[in-house]
Amino acid sequence: QVQLVESGGGVVQPGRSLRLSCVVSGFTFSNYGMHWVRQAPGKGLEWVAALSSDGTTTYYVDSVKGRFTISRDNSKNTLYLQMNSLRGEDTALYYCARDLRPWYLGEYWGQGTLVTVSS
Amino acid sequence: QSALTQPASVSGSPGQSITISCTGINNDVGDYRHVSWFQQHPGRAPKLIIYDATYRPSGASNRFSGSRSGNTAYLTISGLQSEDEAQYYCTAYTRMLWLFGGGTKLTVL
């Protein structure tokens, strides 16, 4: 069955970096676009970034442009989110999610990895 | 502030039907595509229940239905059950980004 497993979260100081990973199984990873979506504690969902199936097209929410980079390694069935210059407002549970079809967000989701930005 | 507006809460009794709205701030219908609805129970990942405004993915209950009129999308849940008590989010793709509504808390009385 389809599985998405995020990792890499933790507690980090403002201004520092963190890299999240999402290892997938149960489907042909290279055929699907992928997303990162976050949820601050007690808050709603916020889309963060998207990446096409071939890794050539990326989109970001304005608040992370220039700080976050979404990427993928199709040979390792892994999606990444490199997060630099972290801020307190980046504190959230980060989910990876798979497209249903190109740019249709969220047929499958992982369980999330928690990032806490605090001094 | 979300660009998609949902009511903060709705409620209904078991067996009843409820409808949740999702309104875009832009009146141009063509600006919003790939409208979807997600259900999220506390401590769980979101689950896709409607895509393309009106279609149900495999595995989603047929008690969920979606519609769209102008710049507003609607999620209707019929035959309310206790397990439907959850947070519901709409989302849409527009201008190279995906927007989520603020979420609607459904309480089953």
Plain-language structure description:
The complex is a heterodimer of chains A (119) and B (109). Chain A has 119 residues and is an all-beta fold. Chain A contains no helices and eleven strands. In chain A, the strands form two sheets. In chain A, strands 2, 4, 5, 6, 9, 10 and 11 form a seven-stranded mixed sheet that branches. A four-stranded antiparallel sheet of chain A has the order 1-3-8-7, with no helix packed on it. Chain B is built from no helices and ten strands. Chain B has strands at residues 4-5, 9-12, 18-24, 33-40, 47-50, 64-69, 72-77, 86-94, 97-100, 104-108. In chain B, the strands form two sheets. In chain B, strands 2, 4, 5, 8, 9 and 10 form a six-stranded mixed sheet that branches. The mean pLDDT of chain B is 90. Chain A binds chain B through residues 35, 37, 44-47, 50, 59-62, 95, 97, 100, 103-107, 109-112, and chain B through 2, 34, 36, 38, 40, 45-48, 51-52, 57, 87, 89, 91, 93, 96-103.
The assembly state of the depicted protein chains is heterodimer
Structural class of chain A: mainly beta
> How many angstroms does the end-to-end distance of chain B come to?
29 Å
Estimate the global geometry of chain A from the Cα principal axes. Answer: globular
For the secondary structure, the number of strands of chain A is: 11
Largest sheet of chain A, in brief, is: 7 strands, mixed
Biggest interface, residues from each chain: A-B, 23 and 24 residues
Computed over alpha carbons, the radius of gyration of chain B is 13 Å
Globular, elongated, flat, extended or rod-shaped: what is the shape of chain B?
globular
Which residues of chain A form runs of ≥5 with pLDDT under 50? none
Report the strand count of chain B.
10
Largest sheet of chain B: 6 strands, mixed
Reading the helices and strands of chain A in chain order gives: EEEEEEEEEEE
